[in-house]
Amino acid sequence: MDSSTQTAQRIPTSVPSSSAVKPILEIKDLHTYFFLERGTVRAVDGVNLTLGRQQTLGVVGESGCGKSVMAMSIMRLIKDPPGRIVTGQILLHRDDGKPPTDIVKLHSKGRQIRKIRGGEIAMIFQEPMTSLNPLKTIGDQIAESVVLHQDVSYHEALGRAEEMLHRVHISAPQQRLKEYPHQLSGGMRQRVMIAMGLSCNPAILLADEPTTALDVTVQAQILDLMRELQSEFQSSIMMITHNLGVVSQMADYVAVMYLGRVVEYAPVRELFHFPKHPYTEGLLKSVPVLGRKSMELVPIKGIVPSPIDKIDGCAFATRCPRAFKRCWEEDPALHQVEPNHQVACWLHHD
């Protein structure tokens, strides 16, 4: 992992309580593939995850491990062709007592998914400059989303847009409504994306690398802002990032992904202090920890296998210093080794 722009990693000191926490989003055996001429890319290859109500789940892993594709699958934004959700469930739970909605079964361009997308589940994309429309003012873009999901007039939506810009601490919000994305700094554009995402009070916020390309000071401001707004709106957050420093500050639980699958899932403190999977151990050793001057940084050797290749055993076996015969022959399933701590590794099977 690239540590040149990483926030200094802070080891969390408390374990969040998960007792009686109800799920708001469940991902079950999700497979999202891209069908190309050179072969089938298994970008997401059997992901199982649960996001609790009013909790933050950090999803980490190297570039290309399937984090962003998983988020795009949740939003049903995978372009077909070449991509497609092959199988699996994405269950959205509500408080109305009705059975959860399986997002996979909804038409990607239908009325139901449009109502969910932006209304109940919002997404902050990785690069706001390419996500915002350069031909529309900031006010028009936020108001458009509010009108679509809140059934209000355009004038009322603009008022809501101004209120949200104020809440994300953008100065002179009334003036900013009239400006275009290129007139704002990177940090301000990211705040606009957060304002847009939260303008309809979504239950779930998907944040895909929300602090990428921002300097450390602005990163801290954005993270503080997200914590503040999460508390205010009582939303759940899925934080997708390669930055373990961000995860240690934001997450209640952490899912570590490798080659399209979750290889470890645990409370944040448990994962940082007692990692079980060799890949997780490698990630933690490759990032500097604040206050540990003598700690040597150890890179993970080798390269990630191609998602096109069929692998019989554990996908990490080619890079794992502790791999043994079974690792090359059988693929380990994710299973519980401690309360709320799951790992996919033969080292921790009976």
In short:
This protein has helices at 67-74, 111-116, 128-131, 138-150, 154-167, 173-176, 186-198, 216-233, 244-250, 268-273, 278-285, 325-329, and strands at 23-36, 39-52, 56-60, 83-92, 101-102, 121-124, 204-208, 236-240, 253-258, 261-267, 335-338, 341-343. The chain has 350 residues and is of the alpha/beta class. Mean pLDDT is 88; it is low at 1-19.
Which keywords apply here?
350 residues; eight-stranded mixed sheet; alpha/beta
* Cα-to-Cα separation, first versus last residue: 31 Å
| Number of alpha- plus pi-helical segments | 12
Instruction: Give the C-alpha Rg.
Output: 20 Å
Shape field:
globular
Helices and strands, in order, run as EEEHEEHEHHHHHEHEHEEHHHEE
Q: Give helix % range.
A: 25-40%
Computed structural class = alpha/beta
Number of β-strand runs? 12
Largest sheet: 8 strands, mixed
Q: Strand percentage, roughly?
A: 15-25%
Averaging pLDDT over every residue, what do you get? Answer: 88
Which strand order does the major sheet show? Answer: 6-7-8-3-9-10-12-11
